[in-house]
Amino acid sequence: MGRLLSSVEVSRLLGLREAKVRELARAGLCRPARRGRRYAFSFQDVVVLRAAKELVERHVPAARIRRALAALTAQLPEGRPLSGLRIFADGREVAVRDGGAAWQPATGQIVLDFAVDDLRRGVARLAGAAGAPCGAAGASGAPAEDARAAFEAALELEDLDPEAARDAYRRALALDPELVDARVNLGRILHEAGDAAEAARLYEEALARAPEDPIVHFNLALALEDVEDRERAIAHYRRALALDPDFADAHYNLAGLCELAGRNAEALRHYHAYKKLTEG
Length: 280
Fold this sequence. Notes:
By secondary structure, the chain is mainly α. The protein has helices spanning about 5-15, 20-25, 45-55, 60-75, 115-130, 145-160, 160-175, 180-190, 195-210, 215-225, 230-245, 250-260, 265-280, and strands at about 35, 40, 85-90, 95-100, 100-105. A hairpin with a 2-residue loop joins strand 4 (about 95-100) and strand 5 (about 100-105).
């Protein structure tokens, strides 16, 4: 089981107010564990909350979201996680994509997702325009705007089809290997899909191009935690904090690792810093 996240960490990851995170949890849209009076969110909870956030922003009622998630859980084989699915709004209804199929779990109705197909075609056009193998695209003089267009397409696809988003980020990198944001986002998607080792490799490549970016150090540390390389994770959390001393989540994660390593004084210092930054 992966490390559980606090409401503050989830709010930062999803761009929500902490109060909104707690509100969505209280509405029954996920089932976080408890640490005393506080919620402790699993990766699966974060996946569901991210979907719930997007559905609420599309004005889908919370009760409808809750019913759809319950129906979806009942439809899936036992043990199948929601993290492999894409949950999105179809008008004011909840819809789900699994590979090439999309449907409304509450009714079973098939959904035709034209937006995904349009974006895929756009990425395919960019691939054709590059006209070079992935390994040679950067040397072929492909215009930077094509790489940026592939990157923008990937951003759109993340919310519709993560597999297509991965392909689009890879195309962007083929066109411009120096596009750090594409490397970081691809790493994040792969990490969310469970491939922490490949995510770590991508983050390390990103750091070779942007060594002073605290977010990349933080992301790499998260991936290293998941491949049980705790000492290197500690080093990158420390580097993230050297670059951004107010990075609350880095303080919290580093405190946990220091505690596991028996470095209690350092752990306590970072817990205090986290509390000061998040509670005032």
